[in-house]
């Protein structure tokens, strides 16, 4: 049985070993899109009636189902989104169990470990960062070698970055980097496309984990705001009654 902390420690060790792998997370917003439900949470939005958004949805689904030896997919856990959603995502992903983990692996009760043990590793390899253009990069406890500033609803306004980044990452010098995505479902699509294009890097969808440094959050998350139910939450895998 997977445990919340042991999976985090597994990926921590991969980073220590400087392995090349991809972690792409799909939480409630991404799942709503895949279910063709409208979304507008101020950070990204999706309309089932838009032909353009339908293309984006298809690409998101492709990323969710993409299979590669070093590609890991995070899904919503039953304690946060319910066992029915967990089982639906498990089945719909078509991923093998060993390639699945928590969408919120970096957060809740795992967040202090992430800050203390994983963020310092970002000083040991070249970091490429995708984040909101209003982020205060100077506050980060590491220095990215390249930053791609994106807008709210990045997967509409910054879509051209997909092909632009493929050109950039075709250069042989862009290997053994850690590429961080803080840009909603656009990060899932970028992680998929760049893994296919150049799997000699580590690609991490880290969501809102840098918000306390960047201070560009569309809305704040409770898990990093002190002692509360989210910061204490240790998420489970599978049916809690198993």
Structural notes for this entry:
- With 242 residues, the chain is an alpha/beta fold.
- The chain has one domain.
- Helix content is 36%, strand content 14%.
- It has ten helices and nine strands.
- A seven-stranded parallel β-sheet has the order 5-4-1-9-8-6-7, with helices on both faces. The chain has a two-stranded antiparallel sheet with strand order 2-3.
- A hairpin with a 4-residue loop joins strand 2 (39-40) and strand 3.
Strand numbers in spatial order across the main sheet: 5-4-1-9-8-6-7
Using only CA atoms, what is the Rg?
17 Å
| Largest beta-sheet details | 7 strands, parallel
Question: How many alpha or pi helices?
Answer: 10
pLDDT averaged residue by residue: 94
Order of helices and strands: HEHEEHEHHEHEEHHEHEH
Tell me the count of domains: 1
Could you give the distance between the termini? 10 Å
Shape: globular
Estimated share of beta-strand residues:
5-15%
Count the beta strands: 9
State the helicity in percent bands.
25-40%
- Which regions have little confidence, pLDDT < 50, spanning 5+ residues? none
Structure classification? alpha/beta
Using brief descriptors, characterize the structure shown.
242 residues, two-stranded antiparallel ribbon, 10 helices, globular
Architecture blueprint of SSEs:
Layout: H1 4-16, E1 22-25, H2 28-34, E2 39-40, E3 45-46, H3 51-65, E4 71-75, H4 78-81, H5 83-93, E5 100-102, H6 111-118, E6 127-132, E7 146-150, H7 154-157, H8 161-168, E8 178-181, H9 185-197, E9 202-205, H10 211-214
Parallel strand pairs: 1-4, 1-9, 4-5, 6-7, 6-8, 8-9
Antiparallel strand pairs: 2-3
Helix pairs in contact: 3-9
């Amino acid at each position: 049985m997977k445990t919340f902390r042991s999976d985090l420690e597994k990926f921590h060790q991969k980073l220590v070993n400087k392995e090349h792998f991809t972690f792409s997370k799909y939480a409630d917003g991404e799942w709503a899109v895949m279910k063709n439900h409208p979304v507008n949470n101020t950070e990204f939005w999706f309309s089932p009636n838009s032909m353009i958004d339908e293309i984006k949805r298809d690409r998101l689904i492709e990323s969710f189902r993409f299979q590669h030896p070093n590609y890991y997919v995070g899904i919503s856990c039953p304690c946060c989104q319910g066992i029915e959603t967990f089982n639906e995502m498990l089945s719909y992903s078509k991923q093998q169990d060993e390639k699945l983990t928590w969408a919120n692996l970096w957060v809740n009760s795992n967040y202090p470990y992430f800050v203390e043990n994983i963020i310092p590793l970002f000083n040991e390899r070249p970091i490429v960062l995708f984040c909101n253009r209003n982020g205060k990069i100077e506050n980060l406890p590491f220095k990215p070698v390249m930053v791609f500033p994106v807008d709210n609803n990045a997967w509409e306004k910054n879509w051209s970055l997909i092909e632009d980044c493929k050109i950039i990452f075709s250069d042989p010098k862009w290997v053994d980097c850690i590429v961080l995505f803080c840009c909603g479902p656009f990060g899932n699509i970028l992680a998929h496309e760049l893994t296919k294009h150049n799997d000699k890097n580590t690609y991490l969808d880290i969501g809102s984990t840098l918000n306390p440094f960047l201070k560009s959050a569309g809305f704040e998350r409770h898990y990093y705001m002190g002692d509360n139910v989210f910061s204490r939450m240790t998420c489970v895998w599978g049916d809690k009654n198993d």
